[in-house]
Amino acid sequence: MLTAVIIPTVINGLLMGAVYALVALGLTLIYGVLHIINFAHGALLSAALFAAFLCFRYLGLDPYVSVFGLAPLFFLLGYGLQRFVIGPAAHGKDSNILLVTLGLAVIIENALLYVFRADTRTIEVPYAFNVVEFAGSFLAVPRVVGFFAAFGVAAALWAILSLTDIGKAIRAVAKEKIGAQLAGIDVGHVYAVTFGLGTACLAVAACLLIPSYYVNPHVGDAFVLVAFTIVVLGGMGSVPGALLGGLFVGVVESLCGFYLGESLGQIGIFLMFILVLLFRPTGMFGERA
Amino acid sequence: MKTRDTFSRRHFLQSTALGAAAMATGVVSAPVVLRAQGAGVKLGVLQPLTGALSYSGQQGKLGATIAIDEINAAGGIKGLGKIDPMVGDAQSTPEGGSAEVEKMKSAGVVAIVGGYASSICLATTQAAARYNLPYIVDVGVTDAIVTRGLKNTFRFGPGFGVLAKTSIENLVKINDQAGKPCKTVMIVHEDSAFGSGLAKLLNAQLPPKGFQILETIPHPTPTRDFNNVVLKIKSQKPDIVIPANYYNEYVLLARTMQQQQVKPKATYSVLGGAASSYKFVKEFPEAAEYIMDCNHWFDPRNPKALALKKKVEGQGQFFTYEVYMNYSAILLVADALQRAGAADRAKLITAMESSTFSGHVMPYGPTKFVNGQNQGAAPANTQVLNKDIQVILPEAFASAKPVFPRPA
Amino acid sequence: MNSRKILPLVIPVAALAVVPVFVHSNVVLNFMVIALLIALVGQGWNILGGYGGQYSFGHAAFFGTGAYATAILQVRYGVNAWPAFAIGIAAGALVGAVIGFLSFRSGLRGSYFALVTLAFAEVLRILASVAPITGAGVGTLIKLDLRPISFQFQSRAAFYWVILALFALSLLIVRVIENSRFGARLVAVRENEDAARALGVDALSVKLWAMTISAAITAAGGCFYAQYFLFLDAGIAYGPWISVEALLAPIIGGLGTAFGPLLGALAVKLLGELAKFVTGDAPGLDLVLYGVVLVLVVWLAPGGVAGLMSRISSRKTRAAHG
What we know:
The complex is a heterotrimer of chains A (289), B (408) and C (322).
Chain A: H1 2-34, H2 41-59, H3 63-90, H4 94-116, E1 131-134, E2 137-140, H5 141-163, H6 165-175, H7 177-182, H8 187-209, H9 221-234, H10 239-260, H11 262-265, H12 267-279
Antiparallel strand pairs in A: 1-2
Helix pairs in contact in A: 1-5, 1-8, 1-9, 1-10, 2-3, 2-4, 2-8, 2-9, 3-4, 3-8, 5-6, 5-8, 6-8, 9-10, 9-12
Chain B: H1 7-36, E1 41-47, H2 54-73, E2 83-89, H3 94-107, E3 111-114, H4 118-129, E4 135-137, E5 153-155, H5 160-177, E6 184-190, H6 193-205, E7 212-219, H7 227-236, E8 240-244, H8 247-259, E9 266-270, H9 278-283, H10 285-288, E10 292-295, H11 303-314, H12 321-340, H13 345-353, E11 369-370, E12 373-374, E13 380-385, E14 388-393
Parallel strand pairs in B: 1-2, 1-3, 3-4, 4-5, 6-7, 6-8, 8-9, 9-10
Antiparallel strand pairs in B: 10-13, 11-12, 13-14
Chain C: H1 3-17, H2 19-22, H3 26-51, H4 60-77, H5 81-105, H6 110-130, E1 140-141, H7 156-178, H8 181-191, H9 193-198, H10 203-229, E2 231-232, H11 234-238, H12 240-253, H13 260-279, H14 285-300, H15 304-320
Antiparallel strand pairs in C: 1-2
């Protein structure tokens, strides 16, 4: 009887963790390269969810289709935000970056509230309730798709970072900003591209999340703290770290929720966060500090 | 270290601090002074219009403004003139609410209606009590709201105690009528004031009535995923699942139960966030079918209620409890003002204490306030049948018979 | 310490102290009470973040501990409000010392430190939301008893003077730190911790003291909140809102300055009111405006309000000297 519940719990954790990983992938890139804690990440996720919702409601596009248009769109949005707002406003000071992303979070969330009001929106895709039976539990199709997509996105990001010129430039700037500048790399452009990639990941996460979730101006907030945990756990700036970290956190959350109850169970994530920070702050795959 | 205290800087600091205080006085009182010059009876409408509770706040404001518009269209309050509403945003926090109470009091409102959340209402009723400013709570269910001995506080709707008691009585009734098919129960509740308080009462009162509680599962708001909760339900197979949570979590729970093909003999919510929501029924008809709720509900035989429903739906909004409870609360206050004969706070309190108002749209009967609590206030039992929400109890207001347990 | 150092503190505080004599509007007094409360909480943050350079995202941990300690002692153990207040401050300081010890001992700095404090605050919030002693989800309600003996007052002016006194005390503490060896070491750690260590500064001890003092001051804010609003739950006591307020005020007002937190708190609150006034009833629009102005302020006045002021006053001094 116990295994009948533990295995599905672990599987649930993996599926949920994949979604967390998608959100964290963007954040880890932004943190790893720009070294900023992006407070606006949650609000941007909410915006991406609204975008996916609008594409469905007014253009009739299934989220698995609209993702191909939304990812580039959000890339541009992220690029623009970093290049023209965050970068200039921050003057390079950490405290300022913090406030600017905080301010952006407030602006985005409340602009969504003003335009769309507070009602919760959902979409009904025909496959939302289709299930795949596996190891004794029913797995919702959208979540299974999300699971594989997370691997796909991580692989794509890894490919971009390792194989393309811009990817190499990003890694160079992350490692040694001044040296990269001396080598002629436009750091401002690289920062903006990174932020853009991070935001594009959010768009993908949103499209994969929306069939099983809901949309309102505050919805992104629920994912931010978990995403931060994963970024730290996996190692800031590490793409495989974010993916595996996400899955791991998902499973931990699931098991803690099972044993301690959903409310107290949330503590598992943060305790793990604290332990990792205290004993191995660079995370599983991070660079040694 | 910036300790070079030049004389000019010292002056600057002191004048800035003073200037800031003066500016605060000016800026903050200016709009208040401007508003105080309006005519008519000033009434405060306080709702969480922004922040986490913004949907409920907007709905509450809608109900209140419709009521005020209707009263004004008919010439206002007899003898006193039209109602001049002052809308305040509690920003979903107790501090925000209290600050708005101060502003409304300074603007000269004769009473404040609203608050919505228990935590906000506790702070706002207290702030209003300093000035003996009448405060009518629309929804906030925690019992502490009316047990602090505050003379200015009135609650139109029911509190926890009544809610829990009625929901259990009705469950027993429904179960008995069907031949007692159900015995085991699992409770899934959100972990803040309303969910926890309710779960506590249910845990105390269900077992003596013959029900066995298999497990009580709290969860935070927001909860991102209910698959584990549903897994527990699936493995323990309770006859009845009792959810008590807010809309979004309720929807996720119901959808997850549908996905996992978990179909208990009955889903009997108490203050279920979506269980008696037209929005939920419209968007998820399969997941919603047969779900029961014990919640705030309007009187379905009252033509005024039906007219209001039509009006609200005509505006493209859902007819939710915040709407009709605030609508009723405004009508209640207007009636009390009329009987008080003056836009005077103390007279209004006296009028409220002796109020026997029936012009509302709730199944409560005439109002009767004891220590600020409307005695007749009680929830109703609803069930989603054929994609519509029917009232099944109390019998006097029922529009359908319960289907219990869920057909196989 | 000579009077030249104290006087710049006394004059503005005295000016603030007479405000209730002239201003009777409770709207304004309530506004000022909240602003001073945020200023107090922010001052705590300022000591660790502004003077010490360690940015915490979890000051809610101290605020909430002070608030809950005060409330629980009164409600469950019948302790009088005044000693409960003092114990609340001590409890907050203790939590600060523990979190500081764990974090600094592991060598956490910068964003890592910020994130670990965030995690600690969240852990406390979750515990408070399920623990029976805090009332769990239902929260804790202090009995309404508007008498000074219960640390509750009929008039808002009385609350105002209390919070002003607490803030004035925090100003004094800051001024003492600024002029002490401890303060010099603290700033050295802020500017360059490794260099400071090389010079023989015990960075761990310095940071730990700063954290403890910081936590105590912020906890005092929490205790005050409990007495002013009388109701707490896990989200109010330990929620991210207060962690954000704690850092927003000093950064906007001027990091590492004594009055920075107050100037920042006033600026931020006034901005909120102004935004509401300008945008009217439209939901969320006032906060959009608020966010825009926030970003603009950071963009154009990176040193905060105090930074602006010192630029203006040094320009005045230069102009005066021709």
